[in-house]
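Figure 2 data, in text form.
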Amino acid sequence: MKAGVLVISNDNVVFDFIRPKLVLLRNSDAVYECSYDEALENISKLAPEIVIIYCGYDLHSFVELAKKITLPVIVCFDDVDTEYLLTACDCGISDFFTRKSTSEEILARVMLLLKNRNIKEKCEINFDILRENNLIDSCGFYNNPAKIFPYFLRRYDYGTFILLSSGMKDLKQELQPLLRDTDIKAAGYGNVYYLFLPNVDIDGAVAVVKKISALWTDVHAGICSHYGEKDFAQLNNVLENALNVAAASKKEYIIIDENLMPAGNWIEKIKTNKKNFKLFKQEFNKMLEQVLTPVFYQIQSKYEQKMYNTRFFHSITPEISIFKIMGEYFDSEFRLKSSGFSAVNIEIIHNTREKRVTIDINDLEPKTIEVLLEEFIVEHKMYMEELC
């Protein structure tokens, strides 16, 4: 393939200036020359890879021509002029040089643009191969997340996943201007979309979700970060749980992230505010919601299809958090309240039967709550069987 460069100018002197600068790397490379009037015809006939246009004093003619050219364009000016340069940039030029530029600078700019053009062409070929094999669509969304993302998890040690849903039928076109070329995107079932942001933290992912939800209503997202080696199936479960929680609670997003889960010294950090009980409560309630929300939802998802004639309800407030089973014959409630700086009180009520459990605030972790809720479910079933 010829690395064709078409030089366009209405001044023949410019050809003599540019021609000796374009000593290209291969003998097969070609340099073509033509006037403004012949430009579009020659682009169609010669199919050059890049175009160099000399912009003299006729700025209007340059603008009219540049707007019709879809190839990469380098502009040659007599000298740097702010008005001319800004106008050329508005026309979408790729680069520029002046008649005062050195031969080395001009050649470097041309060769760099040719290289970038070749890289882009190679990417387009790869894109066509992926599309022919139904792995990617015309909007750049991968069609098989389970097949694609394990590769990116191996490639990137760090990043953040977003699982996004919307009431709109298709957000692909609308998402394009809000995402970067480095963002990896895939389409799930229905109007659900996976976004993987390499080398971006949770805060960066939240900023992306907020940008999206500012433009469309009924947008919900699950967010989870990726560090080191991760299994996509496990990450997908985390993301789906987070998205389901966000949709069920009508929240913009939910973060379920093992790297952010309260553990170890999170209570101790909060307790540094012991002198300010109000501040402690505010921080504690934030962390409490992060612990309880995914556990409550996961337990509900696990049992709601298995227990007939039964409904589930849960709520989390600063005053009290409740997980409730509304059965055919009686209701059961799991109530959790904090008590000062040291303990969490749990009331478990099955119809007329009541019991209380107190756990140390340092033991307040997702696994602890999950075990207690599983026992609560077993007790509800047992008392239900006694009544039947």
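Caption note: The first strand starts at residue 5 and ends at 8.
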